[in-house]
Design a protein that fits this description.
Blueprint lengths: L1 E6 L9 E6 L4 E13 L10 E16 L3 E4 L7 E3 L2 E6 L2 E6 L2 E2 L2 E4 L8 E3 L23 E7 L2 E6 L4 E6 L4 E6 L7 E8 L5 E7 L21 E7 L6 E8 L11 E7 L4 E6 L4 E6 L4 E6 L23
Antiparallel strand pairs: 1-2, 3-4, 4-5, 4-6, 4-7, 6-9, 7-8, 10-11, 12-13, 13-14, 14-15, 16-17, 17-18, 18-19, 20-21, 21-22, 22-23
């Protein structure tokens, strides 16, 4: 499927330009991907904390487009994409400098080649559109939370009741997981354990199709507000196991209207924002409430939405 643009020449919309999703013909895509990841521990002193990562993908395609025949490049497909990064982690400090390159590509297909919309990598204000409405892989229904783990993109879709995974930088769909247990998912956070498995936490705000008024308790089982999955993508695999479900049933620590969530791996805690109580509840990574609540008072006149952490040492925060 791609977006076609054409001029309307009749009816009430005569003179307007229309944009319409269209089904293409047969297409073939081929290419090669190269990746390098190395911690430079052989360097002396402070330089041993450096690490380098680089990914390069070359692709080409042959697509059939209505009115053009075969031999066209797939819309949204760039021949050259790369993602180099420089990282540093030592003595409680962690940082990452990354650069993404997505080459020239066709964004929208016009009535003829002169009307195709192409965004240049160096000067275009828009790199590309990813997905569109739908339930298949590569499409989204009400995407909410988003997280990036190295070259893996995770997108939480509320109305498809799933987490979808894509390979970066080309946004190639890899699969989705746990439509069977997620009802109204929203936020997502993760950390990679020592075995290389992603421990993924997803907030699930089912029962709150409409945010309840202040003072009125929301519906749904509060003990299932956070889902914990073990996502294993090692050796090219893709499996997600439900590792736990948690939330206090009532009282302090109970999660009512949950959206944002964040992992503090250094201290082994989870921060979960509760928009109904205007505060953040603190849990451990196994799902136990730690009898700690943050932000009571400061968030009283605004919903606690996004959560961002920065590393400043395990003893400081």
């Amino acid at each position: 499927m791609y977006f076609g643009i054409y001029d309307v020449t009749s009816g009430n919309l005569d003179g307007y330009e229309a944009v319409q999703p269209l089904n293409g013909g047969d297409a073939t895509l081929w290419g090669a991907e190269f990746s390098f990841n190395q911690q430079l521990t052989i360097l002396p002193g402070a330089l041993s904390g450096l690490g380098v990562y680089a990914n390069y993908t070359w692709t080409d395609s042959d697509a059939g487009i209505i009115g053009r025949g075969d031999g066209n490049r797939l819309p949204g497909q760039a021949q050259h994409t790369s993602n180099p990064a420089l990282s540093y982690e030592k003595s409680g400090f962690s940082g990452r400098l990354a650069w993404d390159y997505f080459g020239d590509h066709v964004d929208e297909v016009g009535e003829d080649a002169s009307e195709d919309r192409i965004h240049a990598a160096a000067t275009g204000t828009m790199l590309r559109r990813v997905g569109g409405p739908g339930a298949g892989l590569g499409a989204f229904q009400y995407p909410n939370g988003i997280a990036v783990a190295d070259d893996l993109l995770l997108v939480v879709e509320r109305d498809n009741h799933r987490v979808q995974a894509m390979a970066l930088p080309g946004f190639r769909p890899l699969g989705s997981f746990r439509e069977d247990v997620l009802l109204r998912p929203y936020g997502i956070a993760f950390f990679r354990d020592g075995a290389g498995v992603l421990q993924v936490y997803v907030t699930d705000d089912y029962g709150n199709e409409v945010d309840p008024p202040e003072g009125e308790d929301p519906s749904g089982d509060l003990t299932r507000r956070v889902r914990h999955f073990a996502l294993d993508t090692r050796d090219g695999g893709f499996t997600a196991r439900l590792a736990g479900t948690f939330g206090e049933a009532s009282g302090p620590g109970a999660l009512h209207v949950v959206e944002s969530i964040q992992v503090d791996e250094a201290q082994g805690i989870l921060l979960v924002a509760d928009e109904h109580r205007f505060e953040m509840e603190v849990y451990d990574l196994q799902g136990a409430y730690l009898d700690r609540t943050l932000g009571t008072g400061p968030y009283r006149f605004g919903d606690p939405e996004g959560i961002m952490l920065y590393r400043c040492g395990a003893e400081e925060g």
